[in-house]
Amino acid sequence: MKKLKLTMISIVLLTSVVLVRQNFAKNTATAEDLGICHLRGQTNRALLFDGQRTADTDDFRFVIESREVAKVQPLLSNEQLIDLKHQLVVSNDLYQQVLGLSAPLSQQRYQDANYISVAMASIKGNGLAYDEVTADKALGLTDCRINMKLSATLKASNSTPAHELFHLYQNSYFMFKNKWLTEGTARWSESLIDKGVGRNISSSLPQSREELVETMNMSYAASAMWTRLFQLVDDREKFDIPDTLRNAHYVDGSQVIDDNKAYGTSFIKVLFEALEEQSKQASNDRGWDTYNWKEQEQKSADNNVYIWQAIQDAVNRTVPKAQQSEELRSFMSISLSSS
Prior knowledge:
Elements: H1 2-33, E1 37-40, E2 44-46, E3 60-65, H2 69-72, H3 78-97, E4 115-121, E5 127-129, E6 133-136, E7 145-151, H4 160-173, H5 179-189, H6 209-216, H7 223-233, H8 243-246, H9 268-286, H10 295-298, H11 304-318, H12 326-332
Parallel strand pairs: 1-6, 3-4, 4-7
Antiparallel strand pairs: 2-3, 5-7
């Protein structure tokens, strides 16, 4: 009987050890798959303003970094903040309702983030977007958020808020920060609220490896190539504006959405999902955590082979090869291999 009891105790202990190991492995995998909330010794002052003209949302919280209050506060106006937030809210709804993208705060990488912090600051340029989840060390993990900065002198007639928000959507889907992809498509995203289909559109897609590599070395200017690609994949020039956004206005009465012209609105989700797949593939191939790449790795030219594969996958899923134009087929046949 003693032997039986000892045997049963051994089985229970062994089972417990196995379960603990399984749970530890599960928790470890989860930690690798989720973005980490980094505590920073930086405090922000919340900006309070009349939000009656904005949609009822807590997704966006405007702040000033405490060390910049005296310099930045005098530059801001109540109407300016209302308009900037209104553009962000409308763009956020467009990206989800028209493009079909998932909100950054609902994505796995940003599962621990509670809101999007919009810091008004004295910066060079109009705006910046950041990819990490951060929190004020004094407030702890309850303050976890993703971040962007806007120039304290920025007006809503400029589409920078929509542009920087699009970067947060990119960051929530994939780790690549190659500028021909990130800045090129973010510049394209401005066409959703600006008049026209984009600032520029290429007369032709790259038709050789050399032309493709040249495009991959671009930044904002690559938007001309993306707009041309979107035109060939989805030639519908107009998109339907949701009724809730059709009459969205700034304080002065001007419309937030200038027109409903843009190519590629039904394709961008397919592209982002293909990029998400390739981003995870790159992590797997390199033995990296899914969402914890070093900054230089996110910007490496080595990512282009994965980005190019994502483009090919997305296009072929959208337009069968037999239906692709000669220009598109020639583009799709390019190999990045130099041999």
